[in-house]
Amino acid sequence: MVTIRDVAKESGFSSTTVSIVLNNAPLARYIPAATKKKIERAAQKLGYRPNQFARSLRSKRSHTVGVMVFDMTDPFCTLILRGIENTLYQASYLPILTDVHNEGSRFERYLEMLLDRRIEALIVIANWVFLDINLLGDLEKSSIPTAMIGCELKTDSISSIIVDNEVGGHLALEHLHSLGHRKIAFIRGPKALTDSSPRWRGIRNCAKQCDLELDPRLIADMPESRDPLASFELGYKLTEDLLRQKRPFTAVLAFDDMSAFGAIRALNKAGVRVPEQCSVIGFDDVSTSAIYSPSLTTVRQPMEAMGTSAVGIVVDGINAVLEKREITATHRKVAPELVVRESTRSVS
Amino acid sequence: MVTIRDVAKESGFSSTTVSIVLNNAPLARYIPAATKKKIERAAQKLGYRPNQFARSLRSKRSHTVGVMVFDMTDPFCTLILRGIENTLYQASYLPILTDVHNEGSRFERYLEMLLDRRIEALIVIANWVFLDINLLGDLEKSSIPTAMIGCELKTDSISSIIVDNEVGGHLALEHLHSLGHRKIAFIRGPKALTDSSPRWRGIRNCAKQCDLELDPRLIADMPESRDPLASFELGYKLTEDLLRQKRPFTAVLAFDDMSAFGAIRALNKAGVRVPEQCSVIGFDDVSTSAIYSPSLTTVRQPMEAMGTSAVGIVVDGINAVLEKREITATHRKVAPELVVRESTRSVS
DNA sequence: CGTTGGACCGGAAACGTTTCCGAAGCGTGG
DNA sequence: CCACGCTTCGGAAACGTTTCCGGTCCAACG
Questions:
Q1: Of the four, A145, A269, A321, B157, which is 20 to 30 A from B232 by CA?
Q2: Given a cut of 90, is residue A115 above it in pLDDT?
Q3: What is the CB neighbour count within 10 angstroms for residue B100?
Q4: Cα-only R_g, chain B
């Protein structure tokens, strides 16, 4: 292993100077170009690679950020992860990925491990999580820049990035209404999910605006459930229930894409063709939506952008603590976007 | 920040003893229980957490393994990642996740970054990659335990885990044949993919065994393409082409699930009902397959197990280098499994 | 000509561990 | 009673950086 002292010896300068030159430290202003050249050549020749352990020990920096996911298998995650990874790459940070599997104990253990590694920031993808109050406490006292994606937060110590669920709900219903649908069935999200209520509020707003009456018998509620696959099952089951009622409807507005897929499956099974006889709209725009048969009309969450945004926030945070400025949480609410595909059609 | 010396002072022993006790080093045999108790209590009281930087610098260990993915958005990845993460967690390693985006330059840069971090092992998920020969060279000279998932390898410096594509292909055709299908269309994978040819070999073997003649006019070839979404598009397009030929077929055996979805979409669009009029079988069993409409019959790759297996191999490798034993690559070929769902049906 | 300040560089401390080496104490067998 | 081996512990040297603090030159300025 070749150390900085080897480079010093080879180049004829001290390790101090070598360090300054190779890191382009402020003092490098005073180093003449000739010296720099020599040192760089020596480093090059010996194939010198600084030891990150020593560097970190001395500088107290890890150039690493923790990424904590509540459930990797949720398709909601992957695009966010891509956004995070890509932006971190540009900023020369490396992500440590941890999957909490929706277990509190695992959360605690991972959080400790990450803090022990002196991660410089933390990004939490809190999709589909029924967050526990004391977990948040653990997070708050960690005192490193933290951003949470997909979960509304009131704290001013943790930043958050969420989609604007209210306008999303509005968008979805508005689309169905504009296609002429009046008898619409709804699959509402679980109460415990922070997304559910604003999304529903948007729907109600839009209904009022359109003078549309919502039939309470056509509103189904998803019970709490732990994983995204369950969401599919629930969409299926609830749609079956709705069909059994024999109350006619020409469209289903599902809580998310997964439940929308479940709904489509149930409709197909019952001999109802989508979209010819019944339209279906989802929420999220997970990657499956584009390739489904029929492809799914949905309200897209700009997931990659949300990941990028989260990294932006925490990197700012890192710089803030480096410059000893006060770090202040920011709460961003990004705009959703209607993506019209095959699963919705104007009512015949 | 509380250091080991603080604990030493508090407990009344030297930092040497504290270190030995807290790490349960071999020498801890000689430390009486009373001493241990005192030290542990002191550490507890002060809330001592060892500085990983210093620890790593001294012990030359990072307890970190690099995970390199060629394309995160490929649904093939997520379950593998889950398996990797979970097994690493149990072994108390933390993964650094990098996504190469199928770019050579990114591969090189990330590899350097990972090696600089002194990762103790590397796992590469090489789905859908057209591997470059010189990239492999870089990997080989890295001299840390390395496992590659999803890409057959001959080297004996890099381990590999792949599914047995040949028996997989066999399984798929056998299933269709047993359902009575005789006129079968095939979508073959791109030549450059290492999976393609063994999978096809399995199909041919099965055909011979069943005395089934393969109609060359019903065999479509996927051109090279870079991303998994393209696979869907190609499945769609090639199936359209097949249909245009007006040569009747009652089943499609697709290269993978993505192209199978494309095929289903094309069939639906052409008014052909799946599975009533035409069966479709895929390969992989990505998470979408179970929720598709109709749900997809496919040949499953045990992805989570493959991730687990990869971790097992490299962790053994790590232990081997720790004990200065020779590390020797192992090449594992895991058995695929036929998953029968709705998209295939016996020919009427 | 003395002083000042900027350019250029090096010595050595510090970061917090782990571990090598050796010392002291004590029982025990010869 | 001596030597030896086991238990129990501490001093101090690493590990490889970064950076504080200072030194030496030399030009310029009053």
A1: A269
A2: yes
A3: 23
A4: 26
Residue pair B180/B347 in contact by the 8 Å Cβ criterion: yes
Q: Which residue has the higher pLDDT, B328 or B39?
A: B39
What is the 3 state secondary structure string of A56-100?
A: HHHHCCCCEEEEEECCCCCHHHHHHHHHHHHHHHHCCCEEEEEEC
In angstroms, the CA B194 to CA B189 distance is 9
Residues 6+ apart with CB under 8 A from A134: none
Å between CA of A29 and C1' of D30:
29
Phi–psi pair at A105, nearest 5 degrees? -65, -40
Burial class (CB in 10 A: 0-12, 13-18, 19+), A208: exposed
Predicted pLDDT of residue B130:
58
- Cα A169 from Cα B287, distance rounded (Å): 27
Torsional sign, CA B33, B37, B39, B43: positive
Q: Is A116 on the interface with B (CB under 8 A)?
A: yes
List alpha helices for chain B, DSSP H: 4-11, 15-23, 33-46, 52-59, 75-90, 104-116, 133-140, 165-178, 196-210, 228-244, 257-269, 287-291, 303-322
pTM of whole model > 0.85?
A: yes
Residue A189's closest CA among A177, A172, A175, A174? A172
pLDDT digits (tens, 9 = 90+) for A296-313: 999 999 999 999 999 999
For chain A, give the percent of residues with pLDDT over 90: 85
Identify whether the C-beta of residue B77 lies closer than 8 Å to the C-beta of residue B97.
Answer: no
Q: What is the pLDDT of residue A128?
A: 63
Backbone angles phi, psi at B119, to 5 degrees: -60, 145
Residue in A309, A85, A148 with CA at minimum distance from that of residue B97: A85
Residue B228 — very low, low, confident or very high, per pLDDT cuts 50/70/90?
A: confident
- Interface contact A97-B85, CB threshold 8 A: yes
Q: Which nucleotide is nearest to A16 (CA to C1')?
A: C10
